[in-house]
Design brief:
The protein is mainly alpha-helical and 120 residues long. The chain has 2 domains: 79 residues, DksA, coiled-coil domain (Four Helix Bundle (Hemerythrin (Met), subunit A), Up-down Bundle); 40 residues, no CATH class. The chain has 4 helices and no strands. Helix 1 runs antiparallel to helix 2. The longest helix is centred in the middle third of the chain and has 37 residues. It is flat, with a radius of gyration of 19 Å. The model has no long low-confidence stretch (mean pLDDT 89). The protein binds zinc ion (ZN). The site of zinc ion (ZN) has 8 residues, from helix 4. It is found in: Cytoplasm. Its main location: cytoplasm. Pfam families: DksA_N, zf-dskA_traR. This is RNA polymerase-binding transcription factor DksA. GO terms for molecular function: zinc ion binding.
């Protein structure tokens, strides 16, 4: 991969990471603000299910943050954009659509087919 592409992805992933982290901070603030407000048990119940939703969302964000950090690590060690299955280059257009991917499109679809077969 060319240096300018690496720079592009480093920039992109860094921004993405910052955005998720910023969003996460707001969510935490919202949650602690809301805790004080609900005196009515019914309100509190619906608030608690909101909170569960928020936590699920945070869980997804946490996973994404981990993936982005790993992708940035691969940019640093020079393995970014290389399929971890077959060692071929992952196409730039695929990386642009999904920069955190570690598989080329062929290996990804093979993996999905195998997952389908493993389903009961
Ligand atoms: Zn591959």
């Amino acid at each position: 991969m060319e240096q300018k592409d690496l720079d592009f992805f480093r920039e992109y992933l860094t921004q993405e990471l910052e955005e998720i982290q910023k969003k996460g901070e707001h969510t935490l603030e919202d949650m602690s603000n809301q805790n004080a407000v609900y005196a009515d048990p019914a309100d509190r119940a619906s608030h608690e299910s909101d909170q569960a939703f928020t936590l699920r969302l945070r869980d997804r964000d946490r996973k994404l943050i981990k993936k982005i950090r790993e992708a940035l690590g691969r940019i640093e060690d020079g393995t970014f954009g290389i399929c971890e299955e077959c060692g071929e280059d992952i196409s730039i257009s695929r990386l642009k659509a999904r920069p955190v991917t570690t598989l080329c499109i062929e290996c990804k679809s093979k993996q999905e087919e195998e997952e389908q077969l493993l389903k009961p």
